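Suppose a colleague, Dr. K., hands you the sequence of a protein chain of 73 amino acids and asks what its three-dimensional shape might be. Before reaching for any lab equipment, you can write down a predicted structure in token form. Begin with the sequence itself:
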Amino acid sequence: MAIVINLDVMLARRKMASKDLAEAVGITAQNLSILKTGKAKAIRLSTLEAICRELACQPGDILEYRPDAADPS
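The predicted structure, expressed as tokens, is then:
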């Protein structure tokens, strides 16, 4: 996958548990887990905004683009 989710890294830096972030953002722990593992197909901008607010970070701290090895560009 070309988009990598670095949510675990930010949680570790902020010394915050996933369940605490999920509660603060207003999503289920299961949905946060799906996002953390990169299995989510989409994320609402309002959810991304809430995550960034709680972790005091920028969207680019959480989302990273890495080209696939098979991608010729």
